[in-house]
Amino acid sequence: MKLVFLGPPGAGKGTLAVLVAEAYNIPHISTGEIFRTAIREKTPLGLKVQAIIDAGQLVSDDITIELVKERLAKSDAKKGFILDGFPRTIPQAEALAEIVNIDSAVNFDIDDELVVKRLSGRRVCKTCSQNYHVDFMPPKVEGKCDKCGSDLIIREDDKIEAITKRLEVYRKQTEPLIGFYREKNKLTDVDASPSSGTVFESFQKLFPQT
Ligand code: AP5
């Protein structure tokens, strides 16, 4: 199964992608996570993109397309994948179509008010990147990761000014992809507002395992 997860920041793409990747045994490829790892490790890529990401802007198409091309060339992506957060612009979608024929773009439908609630309450593990929410998915011990025990932190781009910017960028640059994939009969809408378990059940009905 070759899928793109499309939707505003905080819609729950990353959370569902983790569940689907495990259940369907396909890799979860998150461009945001690749960039955040590069920033954490202070690689040349990380140093180049840090200020852009912290401000809620998009990294250039050239850099992002090259990165995804390299990742999709790895052997584990041959059987299928979830692309989480890519494509995000029409040029990225056109470039992806030249690399691989996806089965579907899953569109996470959610309103802005809930997005802001989800992003402002998100906490992430500074070591293993596991994500939590202070109200909706709290850790067992406050401020500590259930998986590895490290401290939970707030993502720089989850501060309110960056959230506002990311939503603005989403409307302008990424939302047009809904029409792009609908025209190609590749769009699958999912109601992303219920709990993650309910969203996962809806996904399983739409994409039954063979
Ligand atoms: P990226 O990491 O892709 O960020 P995003 O798209 O803004 O997505 P998020 O990670 O914020 O949200 P999500 O939908 O995954 O929600 P999550 O599951 O975490 O990109 C970051 C940055 O990198 C971009 O801004 C850009 O600068 C750059 N970048 C990345 N890709 C790029 C590209 N292709 N081109 C150019 N630049 C690019 O959930 C959010 C919260 O809600 C969590 O706390 C979670 O616990 C909670 N939650 C999730 N689901 C539910 C639920 N169903 N019910 C209740 N709570 C829930």
Bound molecules: BIS(adenosine)-5'-pentaphosphate
Q: Regarding CATH, which class of the domain at 2-26 and 79-110 and 167-206?
A: Alpha Beta
Rg estimate, integer Å: 16 Å
The helix content is 40-55%
The total count of strands amounts to: 8
Topology:
Blueprint: E1 2-6, H1 13-24, E2 28-30, H2 31-40, H3 44-54, H4 61-72, E3 81-84, H5 90-99, E4 104-109, H6 112-120, E5 122-125, E6 131-133, E7 152-153, H7 160-174, H8 176-183, E8 187-191, H9 196-206
Parallel strand pairs: 1-3, 1-4, 2-3, 4-8
Antiparallel strand pairs: 5-6, 5-7
Helix pairs in contact: 2-3, 4-5
This protein binds BIS(adenosine)-5'-pentaphosphate (AP5).
What does this 3D model show about the protein?
This protein has 210 residues and is α/β, with parallel strands linked by helices. The chain has a domain at 2-26 and 79-110 and 167-206: 3-Layer(aba) Sandwich (Rossmann fold). Helix content is 47%, strand content 15%. It contains nine helices and eight strands. A five-stranded parallel β-sheet has the order 2-3-1-4-8, sandwiched between helices. A hairpin with a 5-residue loop joins strand 5 (122-125) and strand 6 (131-133). It is globular. BIS(adenosine)-5'-pentaphosphate (AP5) is lined by residues 7, 9-15, 30-32, 35, 52-53, 56-59, 64, 85-86, 88, 92, 118, 121-122, 131-133, 136-137, 157, 166, 195-196, 199.
